[in-house]
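Structural prep section.
Before we set up the soaks we want a predicted structure of the protein with NAP in place, mainly to decide which crystallisation condition to try first. Input record follows.
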Amino acid sequence: MASDRLDAERIIEYFKGKSILITGATGFLGKILVEKILRVQPDVKKIYLLVRAIDQASANQRVQSEVTETELFSVVKEKHGKGFSRFIEEKVVALAGDIIYDDLGLDPPLLQHLADNLDVIVNGAATTNFYGRYDVSLDVNVLGVKHLCQLAKKCRGLKVFLHVSTAYAGGEQEGLIQERAFEEGWALREGMHLDVDAELRLVADVRREVEDDDDKARRKAMKELGLARARHFGWSNTYVFTKAMGEMVLSRMLLQSSSPAPAITGAGGVVVVRPSIITSIQRDPVPGWMQGTRTIDTAHHRVREAEPVVLPGRPGPGRWTSIPGDMVAGRRHFTEKPRVGKRGEVIPTKEMHFFKTIASFQVYMLVKYRLPLEILHLVNLLLCGLFSRLYSNLARQYRYVMHLVDVYGPFAFFKGCFDDINLERLRQRMGKSRNPQDDEMFNFDPKTIDWEDYFYRIHIPGVLKYILK
Ligand SMILES: NC(=O)c1ccc[n+]([C@@H]2O[C@H](COP(=O)([O-])OP(=O)(O)OC[C@H]3O[C@@H](n4cnc5c(N)ncnc54)[C@H](OP(=O)(O)O)[C@@H]3O)[C@@H](O)[C@H]2O)c1
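Run finished without errors. Recording the tokens verbatim:
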């Protein structure tokens, strides 16, 4: 059993001499992974980063400016001093490609080089827009997975294929949500059969139907199609729906295929991780660092701006994925450190109102905003369009808020509880290494986090510094 035991030293040793392909490295999670590997194991052989770029020079430029030259890499930079650029040049290889294309858009010799050399593939690329275009979301989150699986099958010595999915791919279920692979055909709505290939054909048909429309109309049609198909099969938005289909494709190609690549046969070498909502870095290398506005931070922004905040959801601490636990810490931050206006005056932080159900929120919005809007509409008609501009501005804002609630609302009332038995098994296998600091580096037990302290002291200041700047 001793060989089954994991500790920090063994994890660090694992990456020695390995060649790793990572997609999504310009994104939030991807670059955290790249930095961590380079920090803990400078003797990694190569890290190939597939980025969307028109040519090699722009791929290099993107990797430099969006990955290795970001503040996130400050610790690695300090460690290597003047040798940092040489170290990065030696270890990091930018590849100009795109996962939506066959062979990832790479030339055959390069693809062959990867197939001959890769030990690990990490697919972190995705389009994470909840209300994204259906054609784009299918291309990236489903076809992209297929293309990476095809590469995995060509690899001679691949040891691990790691695909990053999302905890919400399983939909808004209640009770314990188990960690099981999604079989193709499965749908959240009972009695339905989800055929991924049929969805790809459908989107190709619709693409042809709308090809003569202008850009805006095409975008709208594709966005609406995504939401309609997601809801038809029981998912709440296009993102989680296409992520679920991506997993189905992976399952079909790497777990059930009759001729899987020998090196990654079975579930041992194929790993699907399903994080919930990922917030800023807690400790290493830069506490509070994050990139891109995340779902829950939209609310922080509104509190900071001292806008009246009405939110569907329950206040108070809850499961860590829930918005309100974070929101309580958010208000405390802005109450103690209120915003100051241009003339030095304190801008008071507004109260937040929570609603127990979406229905009660909708009634509130109807009485407080929709009815006055309708009255304004009538007055505007009577006064021959005197308030047209005001009316259309307010009506647009109202529609925007209601749309946000439609897309994000289900997450505020999420009643499921994610089973993490596999992670727990992994935690149990973790032993102590000779250097306790190394153990801290691989701590992945959320129970060890003081969540209130984290949100109040690290995450919210991080949002202010890195997102709202
Ligand atoms: N962040 C979260 O809270 C969260 C929670 C659960 C799961 N996840 C999952 O974690 C992964 C990373 O999420 P993230 O938050 O880091 O996302 P992100 O910041 O939006 O980054 C997405 C990355 O994917 C790349 N990408 C998109 N389309 C691509 C394509 N066609 N070819 C190649 N690369 C492409 C983007 O490249 P460009 O720079 O060119 O756009 C970017 O590097 C995703 O799979 C997501 O589903 C995230």
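Observations: Residues 23-30, 50, 52, 98-100, 124-128, 140, 144, 164, 166, 243, 275, 277-278, 292, 294 surround NAP (CB under 6 Å).
Flagged for discussion at group meeting.
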